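User: Predict the structure for this protein chain, please.
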Amino acid sequence: MQFPDPLIRGTLLRRYKRFLADIELEDGAQVTAHCANPGAMLGLKDAGAEVWLSPSRNPKRKLKFSWELIWANGGLVGINTAHPNGIAAEAIEAGEIEPLQGYETLRREVKYGQNSRVDLLLEQPGRPDCYVEIKNVHLMRQTGLAEFPDSVTKRGAKHLVELGDMVAAGHRAVMLYLVQRGDCDRFAIAGDIDPTYAEELHRAMGSGVEAICYDCQIDTTGIQVRKPLQLEL
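Assistant: Here is the predicted structure, written as structure tokens:
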């Protein structure tokens, strides 16, 4: 995924009301940017951090900027949770996620389960359909260990149940964790933050749901899937 316009560098002043962030630009101007991230953003919202914003191409949009990246732990971290589905879709179509290779078609936001839409549906004649849910990951509390979630996610637990239902119906189901940072080599579930999610994942995997995790190469021009991480589940 390439950013359509050059990103704008600034300094984080504060993140508040979950979806808002005040940023000071390099010229001294202060702007309020959209923060497309409903999570706790632990370790990624400290005042004074270097951040990058994307400008909106919509002249009617109230907030003219979106917060995309933050410099943390010596590298860039993507905080925009609207991107992982597109990043993953690009990588799958390019054959860069080995467990998801070999499918002829990829469709996004297909209805399934209980009033849900699966992030990606992969289809290939002669093979079971593959239902793929994607979760954005950017939490790192221990050096090299990426964790999910960073806050309680009832919706995430619901998706695990629905993936299990797809396996029971004869399909394939995959939980893809996409780490929007490049300084981790392992992945685990933050069970202390959301024990229910941890339990549902173990239950889902026991029923045949697959779990995979990949990190990303990130710079100010774009974000691409890079390599698989070791699972500690």
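Residues 84-231 form a domain with the Trna Endonuclease; Chain: A, domain 1 fold (CATH 3.40.1350.60).
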